[in-house]
């Protein structure tokens, strides 16, 4: 399940989130992507550089998600 909503970040950078009932209770991953980043198309080289820069963290997050689903790696 994925829910996307564009919001304005206030100057104090504080958000209050009401989660819809359709979202299961338990751990979840929130991803923040600046709206400006979605407007500009990245080159393939830029995408690879970004993925590689965050690969370790992304792999850890994926392992965490899988561990909660009782899936062996």
Question: How is the secondary structure organized here?
Answer:
Elements: H1 35-39, H2 44-68
Note down, in words, how this protein is organized.
With 73 residues, the chain is an all-alpha fold. 41% of the residues lie in helices and 0% in strands. The chain has a domain at 35-68. It has helices at 35-39, 44-68. The longest helix has 25 residues, at 44-68. The protein is flat. The two termini are 21 Å apart.
If you average the pLDDT, what whole number results? 80
**Order of secondary-structure elements:** HH
- Number of beta strands: 0
Number of helices: 2
Find the structural class using helix and strand composition.
mainly alpha
Proportion of residues in helical segments: 40-55%
What fraction of the residues are assigned to beta strands by DSSP?
under 5%
The low-confidence parts are none
Amino-to-carboxy terminus distance? 21 Å
The largest sheet is: none
Q: What gyration radius follows from the Cα positions, in whole Å? A: 15 Å
What sort of overall outline do the alpha carbons produce when their principal axes are compared? flat
């Amino acid at each position: 399940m994925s829910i996307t909503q564009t919001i304005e970040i206030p100057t104090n950078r504080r958000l209050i989130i009401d989660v819809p009932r359709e979202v299961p209770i338990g751990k979840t991953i929130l991803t923040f992507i600046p709206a400006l980043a979605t407007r500009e198309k990245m080159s393939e080289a830029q995408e690879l550089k970004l993925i590689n820069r965050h690969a370790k963290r992304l792999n850890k997050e994926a392992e965490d998600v899988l561990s909660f689903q009782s899936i062996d790696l």
